[in-house]
Each structure stands twice: as structure tokens, then as C-alpha cells.
Design a protein that fits this description.
The chain is an all-alpha fold. It is built from eight helices and no strands. The protein is elongated.
């Protein structure tokens, strides 16, 4: 089935009920003039509606409304009872979530410690470089000579050295 036929069949019920915009209704009408398959589908839908209109309505028993309302009240009461049971379930879910987060943090810190990233620098050069690591990580393009000179002079901040470079 072509895309235009699929579209026309999807809006055919609305077209038969005069619920479409005039421009859309005109497009459906033009398609139906050309397409035998969609015209047959329209006639089948129209005949189905006609047959459904001929079926006499079924009368509702007088006690139906009262029984239905009683059932709604009963289900509402059951849902309240079930809601009272749920706080224990919610508490269990919260505790499980907190335990999971704590386990994840513990595992992350253990892995971080095992990788050796927590060790202190051994040599004086490592110590000096580790003091300026955050500065070195933040700068995209470094003038290496200015940074080295700034590291050699305790009175000059490496960030100031780059500003002057």
C-alpha cells in the first residue's frame, strides 16, 4: 500500500464525519476519486457504521450504577491499604540506594589509592612541580621558559609570569 493510501485510510473516519479542515478534506476527496482501493475501504467503513447504527442500544440494569460505585469505593479502599504497606518498601529502596552509593564511593577511593595517586612526591623537583600542577592543568598554551623561571623565583607566581610573557 502506498504512503498516500495509508495516510488517506488513517484520516478516512474523520473525513466521513466531516471533522477535517477543508484543505485536508479536499485532498482526501481527490485521492478517493483516483484510488479504487481507498474508495472500497471507504464504502466498507461507511457500511460498518450503518450496521452499527441499526443495532438497538442495550439497556443498563437499574442496579448497575450502584454496583459500579460500590466497586470503585472498594478499590479505592484497597489502594489506601496498599499505600500504607508501601512505606516499608520505599524505606528499603532508599537504604539500598544509599548502600550502593557508599559502596561505589568506597570502591572508587580504593582504586584511586591503589593507583598510587595519593603518594607524596619524593624528590624536591616533584614537590615543586606538584605545588603548581593545578596551574599547569588550567593553562592550554604554556611559555615553558617563563614557567620555569617563575618556579625558580619564590617571590613570583607562575600565573604572573605567563601574563608578562
Amino acid at each position: 500500500m502506498s504512503a498516500p493510501c495509508q495516510w488517506v485510510r488513517s484520516v478516512l473516519a474523520a473525513w466521513l464525519s466531516d471533522e477535517l479542515k477543508p484543505s485536508t478534506a479536499e485532498a482526501v476527496r481527490r485521492h478517493l476519486e483516483k484510488c479504487e482501493s481507498c474508495r472500497a475501504h471507504m464504502e466498507l467503513l461507511r457500511e460498518s457504521w450503518r450496521l452499527l447504527d441499526e443495532v438497538p442500544p442495550k439497556s443498563i440494569p437499574p442496579a448497575f450504577t450502584a454496583r459500579m460505585m460500590a466497586r470503585i469505593v472498594e478499590e479505592k479502599d484497597l489502594s489506601r491499604f496498599a499505600a500504607r504497606l508501601r512505606p516499608h518498601e520505599q524505606r528499603r529502596k532508599v537504604l539500598a540506594s544509599v548502600a550502593g552509593i557508599a559502596a561505589g564511593l568506597f570502591l572508587g577511593m580504593a582504586v584511586y589509592g591503589w593507583t598510587g595517586l595519593l603518594t607524596k612526591p619524593v624528590s624536591p623537583v616533584e614537590s615543586e612541580v606538584s605545588q603548581h600542577v593545578s596551574f599547569l592543568e588550567d593553562v592550554d598554551l604554556l611559555d615553558e621558559i617563563a614557567v620555569i623561571q617563575a618556579m625558580d623565583r619564590p617571590d613570583l607566581d607562575p600565573a604572573d609570569a605567563l601574563d608578562g610573557a
